[in-house]
Each structure stands twice: as structure tokens, then as C-alpha cells.
């Protein structure tokens, strides 16, 4: 997809303005800031998306993730770039059940990362507002 190219959602005609309602299944959750928990085969995925380019997102989160208290065994923060939608997705696949201290650790890490990324999106060097300062 080229910059400026329009994407038709589900074959809708150009100019259509669809409404998308995101819901989560039982034991899922949706939190302020666009963070979602989705159950997947006895585990849970916590995720959110950002318009930051993958390299910038990684640079902003590297020290945060490196110094964060241990996540539940086997859990890792991961980043994935989606070239079609031009977003970076941050996610953790966890075995920590809803409401547990392990889940709180995962959510707090994603909260901190979301806050850091949001500040950069709003006032960082690649922000559309940066030129106005």
C-alpha cells in the first residue's frame, strides 16, 4: 500500500464511513486507551496499537521493558509492525489469569508503554504538532 492510498474496508465503496464496534469475548476486557485482553486457548493476550513506526516504538520502550519487574514466567513484551494499517502493535501473551498479580504486572507495563508512546505521538519529533513549536 502506497502513502496516501485509500483502503476500502470489506469492499465498501470509496467515501463510505463505516462504524466499527469492537467487543471482547467472555473473560476478555477492553480498557481506556485501546488496550484489550482476549482469551486464546487457556492464555490471554493483552494488546494495543500505536501509529509510531516500529523502530521508534522499540527505541522508546527498550529501557522500560529492560528494567521492568519480572513478568509471569514465559511472558514477553512483543512489538509487531502492520504494514497494511501502518501501526505498531504491542502485546503480551500471558498465562496470568484475570485479576492476578501477574496480570497486574503485564497491564502496568503496557500502561507505562502506552503513556510513553502517546506522549511521543503528541509532542515527539515525528508528531504533526512538532513543527508548530
In words, what does this structure look like?
There is one protein chain. By secondary structure, the chain is of the alpha+beta class. The chain has a domain at 34-124: TATA-Binding Protein. Helices cover 28% and strands 23% of the residues. The chain contains 2 helices and 5 strands, in the order βββαββα. It has helices spanning 54-67, 101-123; strands at 29-31, 35-40, 43-50, 77-82, 87-94. Strands 1-2-3-5-4 form a 5-stranded antiparallel sheet, covered by helices on one side. Helix 1 crosses helix 2 (101-123). The longest helix has 23 residues, at 101-123. The protein is globular. It starts with 28 loop residues before the first strand and ends in a 10-residue tail after the last helix. The model has no long low-confidence stretch (mean pLDDT 87).
The geometry reads as globular
Beta content comes to 15-25%
Number of strands: 5
Our Rg estimate from Cα atoms comes to 17 Å
The number of helical segments is 2
Largest sheet: 5 strands, antiparallel
Order of helices and strands: EEEHEEH
Instruction: Tell me roughly what share of residues is in helical segments.
Output: 25-40%
- Return the CATH class of the domain at 34-124: Alpha Beta
Low-confidence stretches: none
Derived from helix and strand composition plus strand pairing, the structural class reads alpha+beta
CATH architecture of the domain at 34-124: 2-Layer Sandwich
Cα(first) to Cα(last) distance is 31 Å
Task: Tell me the strand order in the biggest sheet.
Answer: 1-2-3-5-4
CATH topology of the domain at 34-124, what is it called? TATA-Binding Protein
What's the overall average pLDDT, rounded? 87
